[in-house]
Structure to design on (165 residues):
């Protein structure tokens, strides 16, 4: 009986913690749009790996920077591991009347007249989407405030001088 009581207390405590955790308002930063001027590059080294990266989600590079962009082991005998890689972020959006987003889960599950749009975005060094007039490159750009604006690299855990003030 005592063991059953202990189990019940643990389960109820867990459920109460879950319920309380879900009711918190977002208290994080209200970030502005990304800015191309906030782009930074850096080199990560560790576990015998050398890896060039950009704070636009891109890892490594192809030809412009030569051999020292992705190497293992990180010695003169190391081999280049790969060309550039970037993260792809996708989303599925339901819309009505061609452009009005529908976010109510019940409407999405029960209505059959909704259109479905799929988006996939990255920020690579080439073949980026452009605005119709060709003046703005559409991509994911970093936001100021997450690194030292005077630093030439993104914020890195082993470089306190790159951290935001």
């Amino acid at each position: 009986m005592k063991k059953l009581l202990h189990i019940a207390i643990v389960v109820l405590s867990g459920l109460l913690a879950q319920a309380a955790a879900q009711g918190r308002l977002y208290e994080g930063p209200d970030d502005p749009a990304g800015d191309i001027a906030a782009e930074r590059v850096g080199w990560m080294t560790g576990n015998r790996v050398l890896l060039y990266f950009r704070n636009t989600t891109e890892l490594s590079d192809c030809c412009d920077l030569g051999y020292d962009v992705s190497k293992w082991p990180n010695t003169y005998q190391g081999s280049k591991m790969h060309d550039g890689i970037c993260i792809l972020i996708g989303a599925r959006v339901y819309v009505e009347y061609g452009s009005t987003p529908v976010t109510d889960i019940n409407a999405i599950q029960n209505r059959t007249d909704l259109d479905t749009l799929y988006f996939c975005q990255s920020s690579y060094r080439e073949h980026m989407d452009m605005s119709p007039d060709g003046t703005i490159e559409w991509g994911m750009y970093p936001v100021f405030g997450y690194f030292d604006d005077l630093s030439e690299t993104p914020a890195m855990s082993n470089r306190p001088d790159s951290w935001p003030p």
